[in-house]
Design goal:
- There is one protein chain.
- α5 packs antiparallel against α6, α6 crosses α8 and α10 runs parallel beside α11.
- It is built from twelve helices and no strands.
- The protein has 314 residues and is mostly helical.
- The relative contact order is 0.14.
Length: 314
């Protein structure tokens, strides 16, 4: 088990290094001089040259990467060219807004998806299965931004049950914050529910055909006992992988949801920084999102043996 953990951790290190190179290259491959793009059109050559020196753009690209990576490892993500604030503090403050929304959404989606998937699998090709699969397929075919707009229009504008604009932090007022989070969380839950339910159903169907399930039935165990005591753990392993990927995906794709519901989170910061050509912030946001993807994959790999001990033998 220790060897398995060390192997997975070691494999994550070069992945993170490659991610840092890609993130650095994305900004450097942007057409034009980053310093000129960040400044106004009326900027003088002296101002452009000063910003180039400040950002290290006057040095060779490998040297720029080495300096940037050293600064990142020391916690220095640079300074925003728009606000003058440290990039890391901006990202952390926005991340603390986005993270609870994503975590609550993925938790609720899992709580709903796993029972629905198990029910559909055990009632395969029957009314319950057809209803669940049809509903999940419909949810998977609806774009997230359109779903968010529909929820906003129905529950915010037409019924007036929930606030349409604004946001309250959990640190300021928990009950009010939860009210403002209902619609964005509901949007993310419905967005991820289809794929999680279908994955649970598919893995549960494959598990239901194994010999130990047949043996459990032969022993006289009831179907609920077979499902929850024998099938759930093994069928949940593939779903756990999808949950990990969905968690990173939601954080990376939450920009649309935050824009629809005017939430000042990490995704909204990334969008605003792209429009404002604030490249240090863009670079920091992309790096954090990519880092979370890698870490979530690592966590999934480390937890997987607890769900399926056969993995350690591979």
């Amino acid at each position: 088990m220790k060897r398995f953990i060390l192997k997975r951790i070691a494999s994550a290190i070069p992945t993170l290094l490659i991610v840092s190179i890609v993130v650095f290259a994305i900004i450097r491959l942007t057409p034009g001089d980053p310093a000129e793009l960040m400044l106004d059109q009326d900027a003088t050559p002296e101002q452009i040259a000063e910003l180039q020196v400040k950002m290290g753009l006057d040095k060779p690209v490998p040297v720029q990467y080495a300096i940037w990576l050293g600064n990142v490892l020391s916690g220095d993500f640079g300074t925003s060219t728009t606000t003058g604030e440290p990039v890391l503090s901006m990202i952390v403050s926005r991340f603390l807004i986005s993270a609870p929304i994503v975590l609550i959404a993925i938790a609720l989606a899992t709580i709903i998806a796993v029972p629905l998937g198990m029910l559909a699998a055990w009632r395969q090709n029957k009314t319950e299965d057809i209803a669940v699969v049809s509903l999940m397929t419909l949810l998977m075919s609806i774009p997230g931004f359109w779903l968010g707009l529909i929820i906003l229009m129905v529950f915010g504008l037409m019924l007036g049950w929930l606030p349409v604009v604004g946001f309250v932090s959990l640190r300021d007022d928990v009950p009010a914050a939860l009210i403002y989070m209902i619609m964005p969380v509901a949007t993310l839950v419905l967005t991820e529910l289809g794929s999680l339910t279908r994955m649970t159903r598919a893995s549960a169907i494959s598990i239901s055909r194994l010999e130990y399930i047949t043996h459990a039935r032969a022993k006289g165990l009831s179907e609920p006992q077979i499902i929850w005591r024998h099938a759930l753990r093994n069928s949940f392993a593939p779903t756990w992988t999808l949950i990990g990927l969905s968690l990173g995906g939601l954080l990376g794709g939450i920009a649309i949801t935050e824009t629809v519901f005017t939430i000042p989170g990490l995704g909204r910061l990334l969008v605003d920084s792209i429009y404002g050509r604030d490249y240090p912030v863009v670079q920091g946001c992309i790096l954090l999102i990519a880092f979370i993807y890698v870490i979530m994959n690592l966590v999934v790999d480390l937890v997987y043996p607890l769900l399926d001990p056969r993995v350690t033998a591979a």
